[in-house]
Amino acid sequence: MQLRKGTAWLALVLSLATAGAAFAQGSQTGTITGTVEQSDGTALPGATVTVTSSALQGSRTAITGANGDFSIRLLPPGGYKVVFTLEGLKATEMNVTVPLGGTARADAKMEMATAEETIVVTGEAPSPLQTTVIATNLEAKQIDELAIGRNPVAVAQLAPGLTDNTPLGGQVAINGAMAYDNAILINGVNVQDPIFGQTNNLFIEEAIEETQVLTSGISAEYGGFTGGVINSITKSGSNDFKGSLRADATDPDWRDETPFEKDRGIERTGKGTQVISATLGGPIVHDRLWFFVAGQTSNPTASEIPGTLLYSGIPYTTTRKNNRYEIKLTGAITPSHSLQASYINNDRTDTNNVQLRPIEPASLNANAEFPNDGLSASYTGIFTGSLYGELRYSEKAFQFKGLGGTGSDIINDSPYYAYGYVTGVSGLWNAPYFDATDPEDRDNKDWTASLSYFLSTEAAGSHDMKFGYDDFTVTRTGGNSQSPTNYVWVTDPAIDAAGNLLHDSQGRLIPVFAPDASQLWIYIATRGAELNIETQSAFFNDRWNLNKNFSFNLGVRYEKSSSDATGGVNTLDTTAFTPRLGASWDIRGDGMYKVDLTYADYAGRYNPSIFGRNSPVGNPLGQYYVYVGPEGEGRDCAYCYDLDNYALSSVAAPAANIFFDNNIKAPISTEWTASFGLQLPKGGFAKFTYVDRNTTDFVEDFIDLSHPAVQIGDNLVDAITYRNTSDLERKYQALQASAE
């Protein structure tokens, strides 16, 4: 009967898995593994291992295999009591801590029973020496004691091999890889911007429970990066009510004025802000249904961020409303089958939002919105003592809404941009840049399904295997319209002899047109265009413990990527095969000294700004003109706005002159590592790792001389082809040390 019930659940998981699955969703659980022996070192098959925790609804059990070993998967991170029992032997008990995405080891030696008693063994903290993966786990209680940022990217920098010395804020470079090419996850939701790789703030710092940083020897479960993985989870409920309250304060008076502001006698103004965060979790039904909620708000409800416009020196205040909240439910259908769902919202609204380099208030975005939310839902099932299943769905939605202008008057509603060619003033003026009627979405959705099986044999040791299928889709919408009128005038505003900006009778800046210096850019965008890039993956990973001295990690990942965009544009149709291998030598067989070797290939992600370059998504048709008429100024200068006085200098038509090689693929990073680790005499560990990485197959654009120039209107435009190249390499070598 038990076999038939397990088979039914297995069929359910496999049928759901065929609907699709995920790209580096990560692991939100951990594992307890170990070996049970008699006091003389003889393996004890058939022992019962029971684990309980305040983080777990009910209890979990396993029976040791032929080698006395066991593995219990899908455990929420936290502290666990592990009890070993076998008829005729004294029960043994110990406490261990299960790390996020990691493994806690619980080994026991059982003695003959002479009386009813339980032997209590002191458990050790989980050690990175237990696997060949180079990983660092950081819990909230550690972070709260340090004077550092508490967001996942700031926390991750405590791990070796990371730096925030990157082109943009919100990025990290891991083991020498490109800063945009990592996987950053919150509750299994990929929270990265798909264009720049920055982190969307889909979290409340006070709610983050633990962050795992994977830098080398990374399991085949993960894909879509050449750098590494930052995997965070938020807190969950329990059988006890727990909560927290925190306030963080800022004030403009605490920052000194810049030299520019001091020279003009400008003082920063604005109200101080207190950011208040609160969390609460507890039971709805004891051991069956738990809740966790978190919220973050400001006092006042809108933050005030003072700034100063270029050249004019006019002070302005950006008002920002950014309330966040999270809801998480954890439920047990039965002790063997669980569900969890999490929703995080981080909608933001700005008044006076700044884009580019505005020099007057008219170029500020009066009302801009940035709706952002993340959803994840998972099912975990224990079908037999050795067979586990997991099904997970996640999605992230982010939109730029209300950025830009809305008017249609070519002269008065178009943005003007100054390069300083005429009067020396540079920056944005007259109107906001971009088009508020063409919002841009940057979303993703993931499905993942996996089965884990533990097999113990006397001849070949134990195998802790995991099979999975993933489906990840990133979506970008919008034509990237630069102006609501399609026009951008490129010319300077007038200034007086003292360098002050001049205004006309209506209080507007005065445009100055000069031949061969002033320009006109016309952008024709496909508003609402959409691009989807889908990567389907299958992976297998086997942690093989041959004996006390030797263990191996045998993994492989297969990926198939394709794309489709508005206009029937298909850029991608390619595959990647990435092995992940590791070998470990336990010198004495007791975990005291270990030597690890790993080899891995990592395939990078598919950035829609590159792999959609030949589509209308984010790529408006651009026509660039140079002014060739007489000098003039003012909005009533008819010949200054006459298109007959502009000469076409170039055209950008991505859909017409940009091509992609067949089977173009993401870059591949090949990694070798060698590590030596040891347990320290008084507790803790030290690990020393040599890392060698070489990234190749970069995607580059080439003027294709074998392809005829493309006729666009009256212009011949060079054909540009994107392809992988071996002419570029990115090499990285490092010696890393970690200890605790």
Q: In which order are the strands of the major sheet placed? A: 17-18-19-22-23-26-27-30-31-36-37-38-39-44-45-50
Rg over alpha carbons? 30 Å
Question: What structural class do the secondary elements suggest?
Answer: mainly beta
Tell me, what's the shape?
A: elongated
Q: pLDDT below 50 for ≥5 consecutive residues: which ranges?
A: 1-24
Euclidean distance between termini CA atoms? 48 Å
Helix proportion of residues, in percent? Answer: under 10%
Give the overall pLDDT as a whole number: 88
Report the portion of residues in β strands.
Answer: over 45%
Question: Number of helix segments?
Answer: 6
Query: What is the strand tally?
Result: 50
Biggest pleated sheet: 16 strands, antiparallel
Set down the secondary structure blueprint.
Blueprint: H1 2-17, E1 30-38, E2 48-52, E3 59-63, E4 69-75, E5 78-85, E6 91-98, E7 103-105, E8 108-110, E9 118-121, E10 134-139, H2 140-143, H3 152-156, E11 162-163, E12 173-174, E13 183-186, E14 189-190, E15 208-216, E16 229-234, E17 242-250, H4 259-263, E18 273-285, E19 289-299, E20 303-308, E21 315-321, E22 324-334, E23 337-345, E24 348-351, E25 368-370, E26 372-382, E27 387-400, E28 416-419, E29 426-429, E30 440-457, E31 461-477, E32 487-490, E33 492-493, E34 511-513, E35 519-524, E36 530-545, E37 550-565, E38 573-586, E39 593-603, H5 608-611, E40 621-627, E41 632-633, E42 646-652, H6 654-657, E43 658-660, E44 668-679, E45 685-696, E46 698-703, E47 710-712, E48 715-717, E49 720-725, E50 730-739
Parallel strand pairs: 1-7, 1-8, 6-9, 13-16, 28-32, 43-49
Antiparallel strand pairs: 1-4, 2-3, 2-5, 5-6, 10-15, 11-12, 13-14, 15-16, 17-18, 18-19, 19-22, 20-21, 21-24, 22-23, 23-26, 24-25, 26-27, 27-30, 28-29, 30-31, 31-36, 32-35, 33-34, 34-41, 35-40, 36-37, 37-38, 38-39, 39-44, 40-42, 44-45, 45-50, 46-49, 47-48
